[in-house]
Amino acid sequence: MALASESRHGMWSSRWLFVLAAAGSAVGIGNIWKFPYMAGENGGGAFVLIYLVCVALVGIPIMMSEVLLGREGRSSPITTMRKLTESAKRHPLWVFIGWMGVLAGFLILSYYAVVAGWAMNYVWLTAAGTFDNATAEVASTTFDAFLASPWQLILWQTLFMIITIWIIGRGVTQGLETAIRLFMPMLFLLLVTLLVYAVNSGGFEQGVAFMFDVDYSAFAKPEIWIIAMGQAFFTLSLGMGAMMAYGAYVPENVNIGSTVLTIAILDTSVAVGAGLAIFPIVFANGLDAAQGPGLMFVTVPLAFGQLPLGAVFGTLFFVLVSFAALTSAISISEPALAYLVEEYNAKRKRVAISLGVICWLLGLGSVFSFNLWADVHIVGELTFFDFVDYVSQNIMLPLGGMLIAIFAVWLLPKTVLAKQLGIESRAVSVLWKFVGGILAPLCVLAVFVYTLWPVIAELVARVRELLG
Question: How far from the centroid of its chain's Cα atoms is residue 183's Cα?
Fold first, then answer.
């Protein structure tokens, strides 16, 4: 089967537009919100170093695999996998990779829009001076009261979805590229501004020490490796079809290896930069860095509220988070949207609106998980929000990433790999097969098994009880 040289949805106008778009996909709430608190909960410097190792050995090879599949197929993830399995004469079940990625991205977007709405609301609250000289009780009560109000959550979730739908409905050139050209430079500028502010906060040396002083005993703790690997996987937007969809729009003359390396460096720089912007401000106010998810919506507003010009820079921080969330939401939407446009020859704007409405409706389950359905548990102690998050991130993304790596390295024809990655040396080919086809999938499998082991153990115990 002859594969197309260009995507019907359009092409990135340059290598740097793809780099910024893919970095925008990877740079999201996971970098600015999750990475700092994961580092805080797992000892700082040791976690950061282990995270960087995981990005290098697992994240980059799997991202390369996903991008090369996308560029070879020149379609949505589902259509791409269908084309590639047919041309490589592989079993049709491998198309499952595309379906799972699209579904995972859709599920993630449904609750991602809810959390992104929190950040947009905090732009308003911080700018209004809500946290100026506020006590810890005020910061905590404000967040709790916000979560307890379904109407407020729905309002901000709806606003975020409307913006996302409007951008993706305009297409690759007018929508995605225009948004990326605007948001990514602003995102980097805001981060640099916050870093300069953090340097003068009075806690910068303590923040740097926390981020980079390494307790080498942590390297012997398997759980930190597992957590860091999972975080690397999540922040790079792997396994959800986004990189495959974006890869379909990459020009033929772009080197995938060097481009993916650039994306990973930008993504990691934002994650580390966010930590260096947040922790000094936290330490300057004598607050706990290991606050977990509450770090961004309780501790950070409280910290900014105690500093000179805190309302201004606190507002900039939440604008930064909102921009990062929006660039990620755009990429998460693209796989499902591209498939429906291809499959039904539908108008892109109509598909964007339809998908947005369905995603918004599904997201109501996550909204109600914090108030009306707070006592409703889908499985065990998992609320609707927790369940969708758990299934998508802990099962679908790792499984999808592992299968993508295996398919790209072992099941594609050698001529395709040579063309897409420019592999000419036998030594490079062997290294690629080892890292991309063996090491990365095995590491992801370890995360997958470790994450699911408590669930499996509980199920086995229940079966034994039933059998007497």
Answer: 17
- Helix ranges (DSSP H) in 59-95: 60-73, 77-87
Q: Which domain holds residue 226?
A: 15-467
Calculate the average pLDDT of the chain: 86
What is residue 344's three-state secondary structure?
A: helix
Structure tokens at 417: 């790999």
Domain presence at residue 6? no
The answer as to whether 373 is a domain residue is yes
Residue 297 lies in a domain: yes
Region for 347 from its dihedrals, namely left if φ exceeds 0, alpha if ψ lies in -120 to 50, beta otherwise: beta
What is the number of domains present in the chain?
1
Beta bridge partners of 8: none
* Contact (Cβ atoms closer than 8 angstroms) between residue 305 and residue 132: yes
pLDDT in tens, 252-282: 888 999 999 998 998 888 888 888 888 888 8
d(CA 198, CA 200): 5
- Asked, for residue 315, whether it belongs to a domain, the answer is yes
pLDDT in tens, 17-32: 888 888 887 777 777 7
- Cα 313 from Cα 300, distance rounded (Å): 11
The whole-angstrom separation of Cα 399 and Cα 22 is 21
Is pTM beyond 0.70? Reply is yes
Residue closest to 105 by CA, chosen among 393, 314, 381: 393
Q: What is the CATH number of the domain that holds 399?
A: 1.20.1740.10
List, as own/partner pairs, every contact residues 165-169 make where C-beta atoms lie below 8 angstroms and the sequence separation is at least 24, other chains included.
165/352, 165/353, 165/355, 165/356, 167/326, 167/330, 168/330, 168/333, 168/334, 168/337, 168/348, 168/352, 169/348, 169/349, 169/351, 169/352, 169/353
Q: Where are the alpha helices (DSSP H) in 9-76?
A: 15-26, 29, 35-41, 45-54, 60-73
CA distances from 325 to 108, 276, 308, 329, 332 (A): 12, 19, 27, 6, 10
